[in-house]
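hey can u check if this looks right to u? its 77 residues, i copy pasted from the old doc so theres a chance i mangled smth
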Amino acid sequence: MKWILVMKKIKLDTWVAVTQILSSFAVLISIIFLITEYKRSGVVNEKTIENIVLGRIMELDGLVIENPDLAIITIKA
């Protein structure tokens, strides 16, 4: 019941201004959330790429160890 009395006392322009401010905060919070998610996903992608590259290097090292001809070439280089 108090809300109805409060709403009657405040002009419509004031309510519009308040709702616009609240919606601006909501948009700002959404943008901050999107930026943090974008940064987090970028970090995950970089880490995934680093892991893949490291895995490939380890595979190549394994091939060099298993193949004596490649080991000789690697030592001479």
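The helical segments are 2-9, 12-66, 68-76.
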